[in-house]
Description:
Blueprint (H helix, E strand, L loop, with lengths): L5 H11 L16 E6 L2 H10 L2 H12 L17 H11 L3 E5 L7 H13 L3 E6 L2 H15 L2 E4 L4 E2 L5 E5 H10 L3 H4 E6 L11 H10 L5 E6 L5 H12 L3 E6 L6 E7 L6 E4 L7 H14 L3 E2 L6 E2 L1 H22 L5 E4 L3 H9 L9 H15 L4 H4 L2 H11 L2 E4 L5 H12 L5 E4 L13 E4 L3 E3 L4 E3 L2 H8 L11 E7 L5 H9 L13 H7 L9 H5 L1 H26 L6 H28 L2 H4 L7 E7 L4 E12 L24 H7 L7 E8 L22 H9 L3 E7 L3 E8 L9 H18 L17 H24 L2 H30 L2 H16 L12 H7 L6 H9 L8 H8 L15 H23 L6 H5 L7 H8 L4 H5 L6 H24 L3 H14 L12
Parallel strand pairs: 2-8, 2-9, 3-6, 3-7, 4-6, 7-8, 10-20, 14-16, 14-17, 15-16, 17-20
Antiparallel strand pairs: 1-9, 4-5, 10-11, 12-13, 18-19, 21-22, 21-25, 22-23, 23-24
Helix pairs in contact: 4-5, 7-9, 14-17, 18-19, 20-31, 22-29, 23-28, 26-27, 31-32, 31-38, 32-34, 33-36, 33-39, 38-39
Amino acid sequence: MSVIDVDHEFERSTMTNNNNSHQNNSRSEYNNNLHKVAIPKSWLNNLKKTKKKEEYLKELDLLHNPPFPKNPIKKYKFELDPFQKTAISCLDREESVMVSAHTSSGKTAVAEYAIAQAFKTQSRVVYTSPIKALSNQKYRELKEEFGDVGLITGDVTLDTNSTCLVMTTEILRNMLYRGSEINREVKYIIFDEIHYLQDSSRGVVWEETIVLSPHNAKFVFLSATIPNAFEFAEWVAETHSQPCHVVYTDKRPIPLRHFLFPIKGDGLYLVVDKNKSFSEENFQKCISHLESQSTLKMDPKTGFAISKRQQTMMSGKDDMRNVINLLMKKNFGPVIVFSFSRKECESKAILFQSENFNTSEQSNLVEIIFKKAVESLEKEDQDLPQIQLILPILKRGIAIHHSGLFPIIKEVIEILFQEGLIKVLFATETFSMGLNMPAKTVVFNGIVKYDGVENREIVAGEYIQMSGRAGRRGTDKIGNVILMIQNNANPEKIRSLFSGEPNKLKSSFNLNYNMLLRLLRFEDVNLDHILEKSFWKFQNDKKLPDYENKIEQLNEQIGKINLNIDTEDEKIISQYYQSLQQKEIISEKMKKIRNKPLYVLPFLKPGRLIKVKNTKKKICEWGVVLEFHEKRTRKNFNIRNRGKGQKRNNEQISNSEKIELQKKPADQVSIVTIIPQGYSVGKKTQKLKPINVSGGGNNQEIEKETHDLPHQRLRFLCTDVEEISTIIIKINPKYINQKEHKNIGKALMQIEKIYQDQIPLLDPVADMKIKEKDFLKYHKQILILNSILFKNEKIMKSEKYQNTLKFYDQKEKLKDELNENLNKYRQSKNLIMENKLKNMIKVMKRLSYISQTDDLIQSKGRIACEISSGDEIMLTEMIFSGIFSELNISQIAAITSCFVESPRIEDLELSKQASGLFEIITKLATKIGKLYVEYQLIDDLQDYLKSFTPSLMDIVFEWSKGASFLEISQMTELFEGGIVRTFRRLDELLRQLCNAAKTIGNTELEIKFSKASSLLKRNIIFASSLYL
């Protein structure tokens, strides 16, 4: 390692000096405060060379135990906490420091000291934040404190020559690439919310910025608690050849109490007290209450078991009202209620439309502040539904806060919350990121969130981050956190939220063309410079020994498995085993085609037996089809049009609707089935076992067992269909009473008993008439594999081969694990990333972005350097091919919107003009995508094509023609805030394209991009921030 083992070095040094008056390591702990120093070898060696032994040891001593300054540059109106004093002591020595502490603990005080130092030495300081809204807020705070403060966010530029500049991290990165004067003048660079470095899409920006920052600058990193803070500090120390301190505290300034509130609960269960003691007794009482509520209930009208989700929805409204009323009665307000969907925030707030938590005087003050805030808007914008509907709620001391709101509405809510005029705030997770707005109590309305890929339960790190909003420093002696849990909650998962650690900081580094081309502008810098210096490589280098040990262990295990068979026998076993594996893979491919609504829906007649498999619901069992319909989405089922376009239970769809459904993807069509309750999602509390129908017994016994076995109606997607039977039970789906429900369940069990594991199936070729080319190819492959398997089946069933096959399977699985670890090892050795870098260079040469021999940047490359908010290669090709030159201004704005990150809308109907433009993108993207596939830079061409979204095209067209916001909002299912956010991103991209055109001297195109940008900038979409 090039970063020295500080503990060992300092111990050796102090022992040599026989000086026992100081600690013999680099840690000083008091009041949960931990201080460590990462020292690079190069710095330490230089210190040894330039200092005498006594001076060297004294310097190390001061480095490990920095004294608090006798005359601090900045005075505070409050007593500093130990961790703040330690961090300020490091800054007083003009050394870098990372502060890792809980939310609302006072990390900003450390940053302010660094800013004060820069002012004293008449040097410059940069304060970076991850989002523009937080930059605006910090600008306002620092402007009031220091005066000489500027702001650069892309949207807004104010006082750029100021001593202190507040900006987003992307802006600082761009300035560093361009060689700004900041490189020479900056003394401190402050990175707020440094844990954004692990963000999958933007995290690489933080790594680029840190690597590119000047070595003479000192750093202040502010972060929530992260377990591997010292690892990060080691990387910074090695990258910039300077010591980096870590000041870590897990002490909260305001202690927290954690309560559980179970579904249909009658009170709170204190499970973690202010001293962090966990109450097992109260935890078990709460779980017992949940179990008592999990008993299945039958709907008297239909005879169906009411699912847990339905029971939860029925009781959820009362539970939320009960919790909030209880908190208000105990004077536990203000309250932040965290929900994991914007729709849920709104629906929960609506529950309290008859409540009023404000006095008449407070309500009047809310109205004054609100009207003052929106008076700068155009009259038509002031009349928008969201603005008109939100004021009556705010006046009652209730608010919502999520990304779907207009930015100006979010800001006025933040201001009202800070002024104590909001007593209950329903917010999404984003409210816990950056914004320092604590409350006395935090409530979790559940623990399941959608993370962009799937619905999952939150982890301890997320819970810690959000619960940190409880407890107001200087106001509350204690903060309260209440977790509302449903009857299907996993007790151990809940327990882990209280005992788990915060998330480790992990690199999300990735290469991109803009980065590589910008690096070529630097003299004496190789293209792999960022890769070699990245946190990603630093972390992976540390993993190498573990992978090497694992690989060695696996090779030993594989070597110990001796099959004791000759070559011919091993060949037979290998062929049989590989055939089984191939059959499984090909069967999955066939199932994917067969389950297309076009093929499967005509056979899903009510009463049809189908086998459904869903790993999340832990189901793989036969059920009876009742109906099918379009999957519910926000487009066809939300608060604003609840019920529209949705069929009620047992209401049949028309033939024309069936035809439309057959055109949809398999994951957009739901099937309603009857499934034995014993096979459903249930946790340990359910304890229902499926009936054993493989043994003897007569119909009377079956009926007796089935009578008490509840069946429930469950929804599945077409993708979950595992098998389709030829059997159809005669039912009347229009009305199924309790008796009919029991009969269906009894018939299902009887069929399973009669056929056991050989229920007759539809043949997808002979019966379902599937004639897709790929399907028929797979079908032939399966027939060949079946013949191979059948040929060897009798041999393989012999005792000799059965045991050998078991050992062969073990060996193959160990080989798979070995290959997996070898891949991880190669990745950690940078072999995969290095290969990607080489292929990206080949692509840039082939497309003439850099020269063939000496990697000099060409005209195309200069254009791509200016584009960082969209696909730089695609946009550059569009400029060079003349596509933009042939379009008018509105068309330019519309086609560029496809490169802005925005939600993909299923079944989007584009206008003829938009379709034509999107076809241009698709053709060019196909050409570029095939090149990427050729050089193994992407795996799937279709996934690459899906990265271009036409969701905004027609909206941009109408807006550029002068349409009102109300008119364009009615054209899409996007929330208002989502429209504003994507339009602002579009403006940023258009400005980059304007600079790109300027770079190559194309004045005509530069003017077009500039005018397209100007067309967007009007009314509420570009309303100024209230913080400015």
